[in-house]
Amino acid sequence: MKTNCPSLFGFVAAAALAFATMSLIARASDYDGSVWLTSAVQAPNGGTWIQLHTGIETGKTEARGGAPVYESVDEPGTIVSAPGKVGYWLVGKRGSIHARGQASELCGGDLRNCSNYPVAPEEWEYVTFAAATPDGQGL
């Protein structure tokens, strides 16, 4: 009879590590102890960039798995990979656009400058998703 103790031990160890990690993240948050992953994109050379929603108006960008590290954007939003470049845009939930890496500046850093996004959005009006044009010259 073959035993699965090593794989069971690995599973238990991984689960315990995940629980401990999530507990630390939750305690570090100022938004009811909750942290949400709002978006993730793959870096061209491997790895992933992720955007976390850590509070009502706060966020954090992280690079994982070998993705290049750029300055964090400290607001909630969605990450959009820049086609053919090593970089991304983060579009904030209120329309700000932050270029990182080789991503070019777009719309003067504000979605209102190149779209019909409201100048004075209501509390319930916010960006939930963005995608790049195929040529990487817009969103």
Plain-language structure description:
This protein is 17% helix and 25% strand. A 3-stranded antiparallel sheet has the order 1-2-3, with no helix packed on it. The protein has a 3-stranded antiparallel sheet with strand order 4-5-6, with no helix packed on it. It is flat.
Summarize the structure.
17% of the residues lie in helices and 25% in strands. It has one helix at 5-28; strands at 36-42, 48-53, 59-64, 77-81, 87-92, 97-101. The strands form two sheets. The protein has a three-stranded antiparallel β-sheet, with no helix packed on it.
Number of helices: 1
Largest sheet: 3 strands, antiparallel
Give the overall shape.
flat
What percent of residues adopt helix (DSSP H or I)?
A: 10-25%
Strand content: 25-35%
* Strand line-up in the sheet with most strands: 1-2-3
Q: List SSEs in N-to-C order.
A: HEEEEEE
Unreliable stretches = 1-31
